[in-house]
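Supplementary Methods. Inverse-folding protocol.

Structures were first reduced to a discrete structure-token string of length 258. This string, shown here, constituted the complete conditioning input.
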């Protein structure tokens, strides 16, 4: 029991340290955690609101949908990148001090979650500003979606962090894949504008599934069928279990691969 308490304290200390160091030395400091996705939202909203939401027609809450999509994808993007590079960024801890490697990976993903919580304040502000109150059910589904994104981040991190120690090209490959996933997710466009067969293909991407149904539930109070959610959650659960097995297999070689 004492070990568990020590691990909790270690993970929280590492996460807080990462959070502080990330913006240390920058003039705006923690404001960048909010400003970066907000600037991206402002640019995309300016460019695409006239295309997907012409004045006087379409969805009057397009900007809210766009903001939610960007914030959720930024959480996924930054979380997976931080998780993958976590062991390399803490190389001294890995090679010189005995620290369970999984605590370093977990701390980096928690750090990404802390940054998202700051962005969540922006989302709430925009919903209040627009005078739009989602239903309780859709808010609960939103929370479930955030939990699923976090599990996806952790799953990816457990798979890739030990691999990245040996194969540094993974970060470059992942940058390209993340860019492709952004445009393959219905963030700047509504999924319904695409042919049905393309919709089905895109929804194979877990982030597309989460973002589409989060936008649908928060804004339109329209939810995925229960069987769709159950299958999706089950698949994420299986992937998470496999990532733990994969990590345990690779963990003994981490220090020597560094």
């Amino acid at each position: 029991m004492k070990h568990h308490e020590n691990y909790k304290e270690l993970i929280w200390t590492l996460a807080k340290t990462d959070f502080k160091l990330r913006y240390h030395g920058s003039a705006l400091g923690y404001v960048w955690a909010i400003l970066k996705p907000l600037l991206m939202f402002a640019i995309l909203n300016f460019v695409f609101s006239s295309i997907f939401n012409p004045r006087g027609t379409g969805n009057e809450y397009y900007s809210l949908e766009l903001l939610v999509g960007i914030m959720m994808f930024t959480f996924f993007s930054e979380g997976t990148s931080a998780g993958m590079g976590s062991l390399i960024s803490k190389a001294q801890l890995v090679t010189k001090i005995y620290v369970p490697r999984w605590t370093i990976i977990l701390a980096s993903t928690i750090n990404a979650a802390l940054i998202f919580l700051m962005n969540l304040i922006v989302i709430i502000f925009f919903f209040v500003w627009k005078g739009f109150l989602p239903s309780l059910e859709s808010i609960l589904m939103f929370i479930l979606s955030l939990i699923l994104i976090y599990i996806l981040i952790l799953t990816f991190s457990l798979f890739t962090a030990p691999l990245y120690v040996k194969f540094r090209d993974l970060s470059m490959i992942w940058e390209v894949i993340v860019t492709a996933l952004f445009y393959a997710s219905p963030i700047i466009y509504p999924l319904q504008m695409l042919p049905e067969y393309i919709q089905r293909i895109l929804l194979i991407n877990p982030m597309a599934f989460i973002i589409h149904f989060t936008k649908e539930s928060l804004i339109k109070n329209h939810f995925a069928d229960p069987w769709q959610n159950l299958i999706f959650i089950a698949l994420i659960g299986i992937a998470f279990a496999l990532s733990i097995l994969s990590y345990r297999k690779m963990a003994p070689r981490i220090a020597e691969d560094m």
